[in-house]
């Protein structure tokens, strides 16, 4: 498990030190540095995949597109140095980059005398192996296929976390067994990925059935909804609610993972009604308790509260949860982080201003006799 990340002069992160846990929830206002933190890991992975990490940092494609050097150096940097460091298990890793004379380049070389790690040094860290999934906020229901990525690398996505391989992945791996800790309570007998994915999708939409299938040279997902009169109709992804197609890659990524894996998810709540969000939070909590590391960026109090509810229900231990609130220092345009403390009963101990407090503000206006 990655236990911490350190960033220095990277995008909005003047100096950031953040501890991670089995499940780490990133929340806060827009433009406060949550995505940038995730991008630091994506940059390491895509540079490694291109066999360039021993030489420097590749800023563009396929996982993220960040432009050139001037786009990733902190606005008020005191020099042209960028640092990314992390702890995995009990080992520390540090990468130092020199953006001097590379501000118009999409490749930033290692700083002179920087640490160089071999593939053997890094192979146990999930961001550098196949025990990794990235599901972005821009996930689409426009499916593609890639035999090697799906079969050998076990990836749901190649391009920007769009989850474009979900249909292919689910069709190919559908008969694999899900670990016991993630089985849906109504479906304990059939442990197959397709059965479990269907059971969890039915929390989003009652009775829905998932049908991954090969069509020509590609793959697609079709959904069916059994009726009381016995007829069953199948519908394309474009003809069902967005929530189904947005939740599916999140569900499949979690259910197909094993302990020690890392999943990065942006906006797991996207297009889901509150109950569906709470059930996704439940699945995320089960996975985290089982030893699957999840880093999730969220703007939903239902996701935050959903994880806290699972803590109170003893589904996940408090010691396995980290919640971080991101704010922005307007003077320096720098990210500032506050850790949210959790009580033994799954409650927030002391929430900073701006931490999901809008509903309280709205209720005070609605209940007031003087709304102005």
Folded structure, characterized:
This protein is of the alpha/beta class. The chain has two domains: 1-131 and 261-372, Rossmann fold (3-Layer(aba) Sandwich); 140-256, no CATH class. It has helices at residues 34-49, 69-72, 119-122, 147-151, 166-173, 193-201, 242-255, 274-289, 301-312, 358-367, and strands at 2-10, 13-19, 23-28, 56-58, 81-88, 91-98, 107-109, 132-135, 209-215, 218-224, 234-236, 262-266, 293-297, 321-329, 334-339. A six-stranded mixed β-sheet has the order 8-12-13-3-14-15, sandwiched between helices. Helix 6 packs across helix 7, helix 7 (242-255) packs parallel to helix 8 (274-289) and helix 8 crosses helix 9. It starts with a strand and ends in a 5-residue tail after the last helix. The relative contact order is 0.14.
What's the number of helices? 10
Overall pLDDT = 93
Helix-strand topology string: EEEHEHEEEHEHHHEEEHEHEHEEH
Strand order in the sheet with the most strands: 8-12-13-3-14-15
- For the terminal residues, how far apart are their CA atoms? 50 Å
Please indicate the count of domains: 2
The proportion of residues in beta strands is 15-25%
- Name the shape in a single word: globular
Radius of gyration: 21 Å
SSE-based structural type? alpha/beta
Kindly state the number of beta strands.
15
Q: CATH fold name of the largest domain, please?
A: Rossmann fold
Note the quaternary state here: single chain
Helix-residue proportion: 25-40%
Low-confidence parts, pLDDT < 50 over ≥5 residues? none
Mind describing the biggest β-sheet?
6 strands, mixed
CATH architecture of the largest domain: 3-Layer(aba) Sandwich
CATH C-level of the largest domain: Alpha Beta
């Amino acid at each position: 498990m990655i236990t911490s990340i350190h960033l220095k002069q990277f995008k909005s992160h003047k100096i950031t030190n953040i501890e991670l846990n089995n499940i780490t929830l990133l929340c806060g206002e827009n433009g406060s540095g949550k995505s940038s933190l995730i991008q630091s890991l994506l940059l390491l992975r895509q540079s490694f995949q291109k066999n360039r990490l021993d030489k420097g940092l590749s800023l563009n494609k396929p996982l993220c597109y960040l432009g050139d050097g001037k786009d990733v150096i902190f606005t008020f940097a005191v020099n042209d140095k960028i640092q990314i460091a992390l702890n995995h298990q009990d080992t520390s890793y540090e990468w130092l980059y020199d953006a001097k004379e590379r501000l118009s380049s999409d490749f930033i070389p290692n700083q002179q005398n920087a640490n160089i790690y071999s593939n053997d040094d890094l192979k146990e860290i999930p961001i550098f192996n196949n025990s990794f999934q990235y599901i972005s906020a821009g996930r689409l229901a426009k499916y593609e296929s890639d035999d090697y990525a799906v079969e050998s690398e076990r990836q749901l996505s190649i391009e920007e976390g769009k989850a474009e391989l979900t249909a292919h992945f689910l069709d190919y791996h559908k008969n694999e067994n899900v670990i016991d800790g993630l089985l849906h309570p109504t479906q304990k007998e059939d442990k197959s990925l397709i059965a479990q994915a269907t059971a969890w999708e039915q929390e989003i939409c009652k009775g829905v059935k998932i049908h991954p299938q090969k069509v020509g040279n590609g793959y697609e997902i079709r959904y069916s909804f059994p009726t009381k009169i016995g007829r069953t109709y199948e519908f394309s992804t474009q003809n069902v609610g967005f929530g189904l197609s947005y939740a599916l890659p999140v569900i499949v990524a979690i259910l197909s993972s094993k302990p020690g894996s890392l999943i990065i998810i942006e906006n797991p709540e996207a297009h889901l009604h509150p109950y569906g969000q709470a059930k996704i939070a439940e699945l995320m909590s089960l996975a985290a308790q089982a030893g699957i590391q999840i880093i999730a960026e969220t703007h939903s109090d239902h996701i935050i509260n959903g994880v806290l509810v699972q803590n109170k229900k003893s589904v996940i231990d408090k010691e396995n949860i980290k919640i971080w609130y991101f704010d922005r220092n307007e003077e320096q345009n720098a990210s500032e982080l506050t850790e949210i403390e959790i009580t033994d009963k799954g409650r927030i101990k002391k929430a900073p201003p701006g931490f999901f407090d809008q509903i309280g503000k709205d209720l005070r206006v609605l209940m007031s006799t003087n709304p102005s």
